[in-house]
């Protein structure tokens, strides 16, 4: 994954929400986000549950260990991050962070 989509992952607390944020070392934008996200989910053996798109953002529902994560992208901020749908599921987010940050 890193050879195709180089960048760094880091954990941040934003607005009382734990986020696993991606800082790409390539031009990640609205048009190539689906390719990036599909490759990311496949390479991590995550299951895509739902894909939502708005005028300038994406929100994909991803399943990992029977818990739902959200993979978000916003064009205006060029932000890309994972978060959980319930605070009780933060352990799966932390487990994913260990996998991505260790790469």
Spatial strand order of the main sheet: 1-2-6-5-4-3
User: What Rg is obtained from the alpha carbons, in whole angstroms?
Assistant: 13 Å
The H-and-E topology, N to C, reads as EEHEEEEH
**Average pLDDT score:** 92
For the biggest sheet, the summary is: 6 strands, antiparallel
Compute the separation of the termini in Å: 9 Å
Number of strands: 6
What characteristic shape results from the CA principal axes?
A: globular
Label the structural class.
Answer: alpha+beta
In helices, the fraction of residues equals 10-25%
Count of discrete alpha- or pi-helical segments spanning 4 or more residues: 2
Percentage of residues in strands: 35-45%
Regions with little confidence, pLDDT below 50 for 5+ residues: none
Description:
The protein is of the alpha+beta class. It is built from two helices and six strands, in the order ββαββββα. The protein has helices at 33-43, 90-101, and strands at 7-14, 17-24, 47-53, 57-64, 67-74, 79-84. A six-stranded antiparallel beta sheet has the order 1-2-6-5-4-3, covered by helices on one side. The chain starts with 6 loop residues before the first strand and ends with a helix. The model has no long low-confidence stretch (mean pLDDT 92).
Observed structural traits:
6 strands, 103 residues, alpha+beta
Write a brief structural summary.
By secondary structure, the protein is of the alpha+beta class. The protein is built from two helices and six strands.
Give the helix/strand layout.
Blueprint lengths: L6 E8 L2 E8 L8 H11 L3 E7 L3 E8 L2 E8 L4 E6 L5 H12 L2
Antiparallel strand pairs: 1-2, 2-6, 3-4, 4-5, 5-6
């Amino acid at each position: 994954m890193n050879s195709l989509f180089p960048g760094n992952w880091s954990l941040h607390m934003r607005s009382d929400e734990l986020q696993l944020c991606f800082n790409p070392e390539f031009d990640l934008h609205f048009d190539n986000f689906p390719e990036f996200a599909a490759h990311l989910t496949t390479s991590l053996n995550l299951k895509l549950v739902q894909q939502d798109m708005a005028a300038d953002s994406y929100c994909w529902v991803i399943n990992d260990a029977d818990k739902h994560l959200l993979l978000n992208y916003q064009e205006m901020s060029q932000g890309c991050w994972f978060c959980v749908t319930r605070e009780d599921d933060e352990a799966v987010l932390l487990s994913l962070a260990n996998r991505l940050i260790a790469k």
